[in-house]
Amino acid sequence: MPVVDRLYTTEQVAKLLQIHPLTVLKYINSGKLRAVKLGRVYRVTETGLQKFLEDGMTS
């Protein structure tokens, strides 16, 4: 059975990282934070968030 990642909204990611939601969108648009676009909104996978944190938020 395939493992399914938890999906976070940009607002949830912003709250977890204690940054502004627009900063999360900036990271997504720059390619630093991987996300999928569902309709008009982005969702960040748990794996993508972990990789982002491992790589360092500002690197």
Describe the structure.
- By secondary structure, the protein is α+β, with helices and mostly antiparallel strands.
- The chain has helices at 10-17, 21-30, 46-55; strands at 7-9, 36-38, 41-45.
- The chain has three helices and three strands.
- Helix 1 (10-17) packs across helix 2.
- The model has no long low-confidence stretch (mean pLDDT 92).
- The chain has one domain (1-43).
- 47% of the residues lie in helices and 19% in strands.
- A hairpin with a 2-residue loop joins strand 2 and strand 3.
Tally of alpha and pi helices: 3
What value does the average pLDDT take? 92
* Helix percent band: 40-55%
What class, by secondary structure content?
Answer: alpha+beta
Strand order of the largest sheet: 1-3-2
Shape: globular
Indicate how many domains the architecture comprises: 1
Short description:
The protein has 59 residues and is of the alpha+beta class. It has helices spanning 10-17, 21-30, 46-55; strands at residues 7-9, 36-38, 41-45. Strands 1-3-2 form a three-stranded antiparallel β-sheet.
